């Protein structure tokens, strides 16, 4: 019995630490990609007269769509992450395991 509980506890701690590191990395990537999008959009608004005068509007629209698509990538797995968060909360509440 003690061996089983220790194996389950060890496995839970291992997967919880793996999940926390992965969630942190996804948030970091999301922040980086949003920063790229906001920076490009801000530069486009600042240089709008120049962009119009050189007729480069289609180029900037393409670039903006590209950055928007990049920003969507981290949110594709958002439902799985929220499911794991819910499961982890239930485990902490039911088993009275101290949280992270």
UniProtKB/TrEMBL annotation:
Cellular location(s): Membrane
Topology class, membrane: Multi-pass membrane protein
UniProt KW keywords: ATP-binding, Membrane, Nucleotide-binding, Transmembrane, Transmembrane helix
Keyword Nucleotide-binding carried by entry: yes
GO cellular component annotations of the record: membrane
GO molecular function term, any single one: ATP binding
Similarity comment: family membership: Belongs to the ABC transporter superfamily. ABCC family. Conjugate transporter (TC 3.A.1.208) subfamily.
Main location: membrane
Entries under InterPro entries matching the protein: ABC1_TM_sf (IPR036640), ABC_transporter_C-like (IPR050173)
Domain of life: Eukaryota
Gene3D superfamilies cross-referenced by the UniProt entry: ABC transporter type 1, transmembrane domain
Keyword Nucleotide-binding included in the entry's annotation: yes
Protein name: Uncharacterized protein
């Amino acid at each position: 019995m003690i061996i089983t509980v220790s194996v389950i506890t060890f496995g839970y701690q291992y997967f919880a630490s793996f999940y926390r590191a992965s969630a942190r990395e996804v948030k970091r990537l999301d922040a980086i990609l949003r920063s790229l999008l906001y920076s490009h959009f801000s530069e486009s608004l600042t240089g709008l007269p120049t962009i119009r005068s050189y007729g480069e509007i289609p180029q900037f629209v393409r670039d903006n769509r590209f950055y928007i698509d990049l920003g969507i990538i981290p949110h594709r797995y958002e439902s799985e992450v929220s499911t794991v968060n819910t499961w982890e909360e239930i485990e902490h509440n039911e088993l009275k395991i101290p949280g992270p």
